[in-house]
Structure formats: C-alpha cells, structure tokens
Amino acid sequence: MARPRIALISNPKSTGNLAQLPRIRAFCAEHPDIFHYEVEQASQIVEAMRTIARIDPAVLAINGGDGTVQAVLTELHNGGHFGAAAPPVAVLPSGKTNLIALDLGAQGDPVDALDKLLG
C-alpha cells in the first residue's frame, strides 16, 4: 500500500464540523491518498497520533476548532510519535471560530483546502 499523502485528523464534535463533516468524509472516501482519523475527545488524540505516525504521511491536516488544533500540536510536540521527522501540519478552516486557522490564513471551504493539499 502506498504511503498516504495526507493524514487528516477530524473532531466530529467541533461546531464547524457539524455541517461540513459529511462532505469531508465523502471527499476522503473518494481519495485514497487521504487517511482520515476521527476523534471525539482529547483523550483519543494520543492513539490517533500513534496510528498516524505508523502510516508516515507527507502532511498532517487538522480539521477541528482551536481546542483540537492545540491538542494535536501538543501531542505532536510532546508525544515523540514521529521521532525527529514530524510531517508538516496544515490546519483546515473549520470549527466555530478557529482563530488558529484564521491566524494562519486558512479561510474558505475545508474540502477545497483538502483538495489543494492533494495538489
């Protein structure tokens, strides 16, 4: 099996995902280059990162609000799952406010953002 280009970690309970997640799931199902992992609570992020590290993606994309982004980045930094070779991180424009995504310039539709990541 080829290495997925993108590992996407989504929080289905994020306010912005309530409407968008069905579209994101459908998009991921059509693109085998995306490995999609959903977490509903912060305690699941450790296992998600272990799994994602094993598939060794080229990019780690985060689909959730600020809390999800912070929890994933904290685990990425502190967990040591990727050793010294952590993948680049992309934050999708989702979540209720998602100030982190806005600060990074991520705006618009999260499915369009995923499509751009596939290049």
As a percent range, the share of strand residues is 15-25%
Shape type: globular
Identify the strand order in the major beta sheet.
2-1-3-4
One letter per element, helices H and strands E, the order comes to EHEHEHEHH
Low-confidence stretches: none
Structural class by secondary-structure content: alpha/beta
- Mean pLDDT over the full residue set: 86
Number of helices: 5
Helix content: 40-55%
> What composes the largest sheet?
4 strands, parallel
Distance between the termini: 20 Å
Count of DSSP E strands? Answer: 4
Radius of gyration: 13 Å
Please sum up the structure shown.
The protein is α/β, with parallel strands linked by helices and 119 residues long. The protein is built from five helices and four strands; from the N terminus they run E-H-E-H-E-H-E-H-H.
Explain what this protein looks like in three dimensions.
It is a single chain. The protein is an alpha/beta fold. The chain is 45% helix and 15% strand. It contains five helices and four strands. Strand 1 (6-10), helix 1 and strand 2 (34-38) form a beta-alpha-beta unit. The longest helix has 14 residues, at 17-30. The chain is globular.
